[in-house]
């Protein structure tokens, strides 16, 4: 090793030791005969002190040093007069005898400090420099630890990590595939997996019985703010189990991660029906760090002459505790928030329950004090509260009120990044209606098993069929989802039929799986976690980008290596493809 | 869980317990009133005994069972009268009260047993059934354990596993890339990584200092018997180290794996110069499970009138201990082996040192008893030995003799799969001459550092420049290779120039790396192991296929899922590409 110690490990117990350190120059202060240099590596920061009065070489070398130069220093650990309690090495410094410049550095395009002056684009272009900053590096160290703990937990339960192929087969169902032209099979293409779904099911047919994999998956989608074309899943599958077993084992995984990584233990790990989540939170991924549950008002508010309410399928509201003193401006802000096109509400009704006990609404023409007292009772509102009410078509108004609830949660400081509230959402619908294609789609995927007691509704009321499907939600974000799978050829064929597959299409795309079901497929089910998202929540970040070493931008580009790029005609010719711009 | 126990865990200590087991019917014997069924899962085999005399349901169900049916049984653990010491469950059986068929099975196309009757193609087509067989499943369990132990060892040494991107940039250097058309950037392509080489070097520039990753890599090559288009590497990189540090740490990894997985501890972990490996074994990956080192004979054999020897650049041989009694037929077999086109020798000279003390060669016309006594002395031959000699151009004759040595090693039983002999081969040449392109290529890759003391030979004698490059060899197979890298822009530019890159090409392909070297790149180096190969050696297999869950065939096809395949015109249109067949 070029070093005897790292820049993070020396302390008072090393006094008098001769050491070699390597690292990057964080900063340098020349005080005449004495120069102080902070040298940094992944493990910490150590102060060097150079007495340059009688050492020309040392003086020259130290004067030539710039920020981010890579140096090797030899010296002796001495006690600092001016201790820095914020640093693990803050009690000592190194009296330097020799400095060797291992590599010079140009002045970096932005500050390599916890708070940097670099904009997003510049930092992406020089990602390798951004990765030197503690907050970013710490995210990747956290990610490493989490992956290790996931493996430790699952290995301890006899799960086997099996690598499934990356070059697989394209299937039109689901999101868009990335494809890979095959040179050896001209005119044919591999696809990159959106998930190892069919392979893990085949492993169950093979008797592996407890499988997992931390695995890259790929989706060629237009990238929204927080999507990446390649992302990582913790992918799991089990045989001979019920839904209850999966919930318990992966509640266990979640608890294990929180305990070992963050020292957090959950008293409760609640479960909620999908139907209840929609009714009480207007979302299949409720943020239950705070209450503010929906209150449905149809029975109370209808029939008083207010067309907005009378004509609405659903009148529903939330109680914003302690917000009765919201100004007209604050209320208008909320209304504007709701009217943005991405939310699309037409307006908001409110009712103040003032601290003086009076009730005043924005629809006082239609509702007298008695009526509003009924409202307050329904909302469980107290003096000082503000009731916010929306009306309209059920699905739409629930979505809008969900947004309002989250906004109010944020405004009231109820969504603390250091508070964690996990939740299982259960019994998702099997199918969802797609307006665009005019047919039902699988809500989860086509391999999800309907609840046995609902199978006979497949023909009569497909939208009412529930699935043995579950999501794990954390702080209002879906971090995992899974289901009990179909393991019977006939039922799988029936599902494909209901999803609009012709028999030929089903056979061409998934014939191998349906055939496998005929050779002794055990009952099985599983779950997959979005590992990037999970890491970002653990890191207290809003974006998944900073828990990835080399993310791509919203156009799917890596601006550091400048990829994608054109390729040589010879390559295209070998692959027997042409670009058609 | 549908079961209380697995099929591998019940023993005499469970007598009297009521249990539920799930698994596959291995076989069934109906002895009139009593039926015996072996039920199998991943963990083992348990015998069921069914008294069907008084239970019509049980009789009907058991008669309906075929091989590979998936069943759930409920019963009581009882002691066997006829114990089977070969099975962990051999002391007990289950007196069955109820059987539930969880899924029926068609008769499998081949026997699901350790020795199967299925041919390679059939087993590939039904890979999910082949994976049910113990030997195949055990390979994947072994692989899982090895991956866990690799991670445990490296994590313990502060290595961080960082996921590098799969969608990267195509570079013409090296093997052929798989490419991925970018829909969002029409006319441009990603490439799948042949290794994360540049990314791991950038992580060193970022100060990560100890990186590893168990990672899929891709090469679009014509597949030889034991190549796969996607394969897995244990990829590692370290900063602030010397070659010696890397050798020690990864010797440690190898020792750790052998100790924890196979209970093998090595006394020696030898090292050899590349030049010596070529001289003594004719190979850069000598199998040192046995000696039979090359003996060079130029000084002894030349000048006696045998043109074959006199005109040869090198006359070199091996001593096949105890083979003096080889028949003419056996010798002819060896000669034919050497004359095969893939080896290409023109012939073989031999000299028997019979047990009666006489020396007799195939070139007795030119060499008398005294000459042959000199041969025997050079070979350290004793009575009963057989000396085998080849002559020709140095590189070629060494390759040929290497093949002969390995063949003789196999014939003499010196290459036992349960004996393990690791070896570091050091100081590889930096460059190798490529006849086809008429220029030097990087022997390892363009980022390998020349030995500082050899840099001045880059212009005068490029072929003599040695690199700080090393391979880890196990039983004659390269399982890992690496080098100290260049970390200086000027030297990297010089290397690209010597490899025939124009300044523009170098900039276009690797500009980001060379730029990174200007911002404080530390000295660094690393290694990558072929994980599939390592697993196959641990499993005692010749092929890597059976340590992969879903391998592809020699045409790069997955015959189970029938991939690659054609894709829809709509997909091609979106990607702005056309096939050009």
TrEMBL record, chains A, B:
Domain Aminoacyl-transfer RNA synthetases class-II family profile: 140-551
Positions of the UniProt region annotated as Aspartate: 197-200
Gene3D superfamilies on file: Bira Bifunctional Protein, Domain 2, GAD-like domain, Nucleic acid-binding proteins
Database matches in InterPro entries: Aa-tRNA-synt_II, aa-tRNA-synth_II, aa-tRNA-synth_II/BPL/LPL, Asp-tRNA-ligase_1, Asp-tRNA-ligase_1_N, Asp/Asn-tRNA-synth_IIb, AspRS_core, GAD-like_sf
Residues involved in L-aspartate binding: 173, 219, 444, 485
Binding site for ATP: 219-221, 228, 478, 530-533
Subcellular location: Cytoplasm
Family classification: Belongs to the class-II aminoacyl-tRNA synthetase family. Type 1 subfamily.
Role according to the record: Catalyzes the attachment of L-aspartate to tRNA(Asp) in a two-step reaction: L-aspartate is first activated by ATP to form Asp-AMP and then transferred to the acceptor end of tRNA(Asp).
Matching HAMAP family: Asp_tRNA_synth_type1 (MF_00044)
Name of the protein: Aspartate--tRNA ligase
UniProt lineage: Bacteria, Pseudomonadati, Bacteroidota, Sphingobacteriia, Sphingobacteriales
Gene this chain is encoded by: aspS
């Amino acid at each position: 090793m070029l070093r005897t110690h790292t820049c993070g490990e020396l302390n008072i117990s090393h006094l008098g030791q001769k050491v070699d350190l390597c690292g990057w120059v964080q900063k340098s202060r020349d005080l005449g005969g004495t120069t102080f240099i902070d040298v940094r590596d992944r493990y910490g920061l150590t102060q060097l002190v150079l007495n340059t009065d009688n050492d020309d070489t040392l003086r020259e070398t130290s004067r030539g040093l710039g920020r981010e130069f890579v140096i090797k220093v030899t010296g002796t650990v001495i006690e600092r007069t001016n201790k820095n309690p914020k640093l693990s090495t803050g009690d000592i410094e190194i009296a330097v005898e020799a400095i060797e410049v291992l590599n010079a550095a140009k002045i970096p395009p932005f500050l390599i400090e916890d708070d940097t002056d670099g904009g997003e684009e510049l930092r992406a272009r020089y990602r390798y420099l951004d990765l030197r900053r503690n907050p970013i590096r710490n995210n990747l160290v956290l990610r490493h630890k989490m992956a290790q703990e996931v493996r430790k937990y699952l290995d301890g339960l006899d799960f086997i990590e099996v690598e499934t192929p990356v070059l697989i087969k394209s299937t039109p169902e689901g999101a868009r595939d990335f494809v890979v032209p095959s040179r050896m099979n001209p005119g044919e293409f591999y696809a990159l997996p959106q998930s190892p779904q069919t392979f893990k099911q085949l492993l169950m047919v093979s008797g592996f019985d407890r499988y997992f994999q931390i695995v890259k998956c790929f989706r060629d989608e237009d990238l929204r703010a927080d999507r990446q074309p390649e992302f990582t899943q913790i992918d799991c599958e089990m045989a001979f189990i019920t839904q209850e077993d999966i919930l318990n084992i992966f509640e266990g995984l979640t608890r294990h991660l929180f305990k070992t990584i963050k020292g957090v233990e959950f008293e409760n790990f609640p479960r909620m029906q999908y139907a209840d989540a929609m009714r009480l939170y207007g979302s299949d991924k409720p943020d239950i760090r705070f209450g503010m549950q929906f209150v449905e008002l149809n029975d109370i508010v209808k029939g008083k002459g207010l067309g907005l309410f009378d004509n609405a399928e659903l009148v529903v509201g939330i109680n914003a505790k302690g917000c009765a003193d919201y100004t007209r401006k604050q209320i208008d802000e909320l209304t504007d928030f709701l009217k943005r096109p991405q939310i699309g509400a037409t307006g908001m009704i409110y009712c103040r329950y003032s601290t003086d006990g009076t009730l005043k609404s924005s629809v006082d023409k239609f509702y007298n004090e008695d009526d509003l007292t009924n409202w307050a009772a329904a909302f469980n509102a107290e003096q000082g509260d503000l009731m916010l009410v929306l009306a309209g078509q059920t699905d739409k108004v629930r979505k809008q009120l969900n947004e309002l609830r989250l906004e109010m949660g944020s405004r009231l400081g109820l969504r603390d990044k250091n508070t964690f509230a996990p939740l299982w959402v259960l019994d998702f619908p099997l199918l969802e209606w797609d307006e665009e294609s005019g047919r039902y789609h699988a809500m989860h995927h086509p391999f999800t098993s309907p609840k046995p007691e609902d199978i006979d509704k497949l023909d009569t009321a497909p939208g009412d069929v529930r699935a043995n499907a579950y999501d794990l939600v954390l702080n209002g974000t879906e971090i995992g989802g899974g289901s009990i799978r179909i393991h019977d050829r006939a039922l799988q064929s029936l599902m494909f039929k209901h999803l609009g597959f012709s028999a030929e299409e089903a056979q061409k795309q998934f014939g191998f799986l349906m055939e496998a079901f005929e050779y002794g497929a055990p009952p099985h089910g599983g779950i997959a976690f979005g590992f990037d998202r999970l890491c970002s929540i653990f890191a207290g970040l809003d974006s998944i980008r900073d828990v990835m070493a080399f993310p791509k931008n919203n156009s799917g580009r890596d601006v550091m290596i400048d990829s994608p790029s054109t390729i040589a005609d010879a390559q295209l010719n070998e692959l027997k493809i042409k670009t058609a711009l």
